[in-house]
Design goal:
The complex is a heterodimer of chains A (493) and B (125). With 493 residues, chain A is mainly α. Chain A has helices at residues 7-21, 28-56, 79-98, 100-106, 112-131, 135-154, 159-190, 195-208, 212-229, 239-245, 248-274, 276-281, 284-304, 309-329, 333-363, 370-373, 376-379, 381-395, 401-414, 420-446, 459-477, 479-491; strands at 60-63, 74-77. Chain A has a domain at 283-493. Chain A has 22 helices and two strands. A two-stranded antiparallel sheet of chain A has the order 1-2. In chain B, helix 2 (9-27) packs antiparallel against helix 3 (31-53) and helix 3 runs antiparallel to helix 4 (75-106). By secondary structure, chain B is mostly helical. Chain B is elongated, with a radius of gyration of 21 Å. Chain B has one domain: Helix Hairpins (Orthogonal Bundle), CATH 1.10.287. Classes of the chains: A mainly alpha (493), B mainly alpha (125). At the A-B interface, helix 6 and helix 7 of A face helix 2, helix 3, helix 4 and helix 5 of B.
Chain lengths: 493, 125
Amino acid sequence: MPLTYNIPMFSILLVLMSAMVIPFFSKKSWGLNLIRGVEVVVAALSAVLLVQLSGAGESFTYQMGHFPAPWGNLLRCGPLEALLALVFSLVMILSLCAGAEDIRRDVRADRQGSYCVLMQLLFGSLLAMIYTDDLFTAYVFIEIAAVTACMAVVAKESGRSVVSAIRYLIFSCLGSGLVLLGIALLYCITGQLLCSSLEQAVMELVATRTYSLPLVVSALLMTLGLSIKSAQFPFHAWLPDAHASATTASSAVLSGLVLKGYLIILLKLILRVYGPSLLATTYMDDLLFLLGLTGMLFASVAALRQEEVKSMIAYSSSAQISYIFLGLGLGTDAGLIAACYQILAHAMTKSMIFSGAGAMIRASGGGHYWSQLRGAARRAPLGGLAFTVGGLSLCGLPLLAGFSAKYCLAIAALDAQWQTAPALFGLAASSVLNAMYYIPAILAIWGRGKEGERLPWKWEREGALALFLLCNVVLGTAFGPVRDLIEQGLNLF
Amino acid sequence: MLETILQQRYYITAVLLFSIGFVTLFLHPNLIKKIIGLNLMDTAVFLFLASMGYIEGGAAPIVEEGAKASQYINPVPGGLVLTGIVVAVSTTALFLALTIRLYRQYHSVNLDVILMLAWEGKAED
């Protein structure tokens, strides 16, 4: 076994261990530096793994403690998982750098170490969701992510953030209850928890036509639970408040990464457990498609009515998540590729927008209504630029990440059966709606407003925003290589 | 019919409990009752798992020399239930902590009242 095969296990372990070390530091700034350092290491290791796996065109399973399949727990890694881990760790580092000042201001001085522990545990649970091959492990890490994400919202300790955190927690608990019941039901009829053994067991059940109703019910329960957790349209009531009332770095990570973690598990269920053909015969993919289509339109309409910058961005997250559901619901390989592209593009773009908005809010003295943000981009130029580029990317301006994801989705929709026309209509309408709320916002922040002091130049923040911009352009322009990488990854998934 | 119900009594109870818990957590405005609902919901899944792993006449899965595997009940659901209990306890703790915070600030455990007060506070900013 090559040494690089240990990287998934090692990075999860490194992240969780470093979280445990932080409380022992006496100096507060060390915690933040340590977690960013660890994330840089994880990003570098994932990049090495990605190069090696995509070069060799292989994926592997890692036995925890060398116990073979039915008894031991497995990690599974291919090029797609390595790519996701790389992008997630990059987003995590950049969000924590861009939001560092807000963390120091919003979080109480004696709690900053705990905040770092939270963020690190959240990152660890996301990594584990990416790599794990075991449904119950996935459930445990779903819960860890939910608890830490709630506490990341509450870290600001304003009344509003506690209220929104409790609503977030209620919806999370509903979602994870459904997921747990679904897993229990699936275990009941198959006797397996590992994805690889589940796939065979499910295929046998389908072939012998036994337990077909419980099988569908379990798929339905898990899909429902995961869509509640990832704020898909009819279940998105908790999202805007929770994401808008948190501190900048929390909002960026929650919107950019945490929602995607659940979608990766959904992707695993679709590809590794149930298999696309079973979903097509039980109309599950149509359900996903319709959820996505309605979400794209309704969440965008809701975003139009927001007077607060962060609420608007949060509603736009719900709309963008719908694109992923639409891609998954197309039921073709191209649709899955588009969904993965959208996961990457939205992770990069949305955290950049939140970081940019955070810088502008800071430059306007904490005002987060549009009236207070007029001319904010002149006071925080790079933050304004990040917001502008991110907004245009989501509207679908070519050469940016959002455009490439939409292009990918449109190509996938052309090959679909009855879905082609609705999907293309949805894409067009939602792009117009995106433009309807992002372009006035962009004009407002660059317009002439009340004179204010420029935000002092901080290398930490400006560097992170510049890197965000660079990554976004790279994801947008390097369309071919990234798409090929995702395609290879999905074939080996 | 009656025989089927009797055979499946654990599963039926589990599903009933789960539904009661789910609806309470979703719809009841009182935060404490919501927490009770959450625990009911989790306990229902544990009942489901534990009854599934039970084999008629099986012993607790502690290995003794000379005993066959068929003499024991299935140990895996037991392990899952234990893990699930840990998870349920920690979410309950977080839920309670947030409820205490809210009660100190708004002097109510009714979520509707709290949301109304929070909305008024937001309008004043």
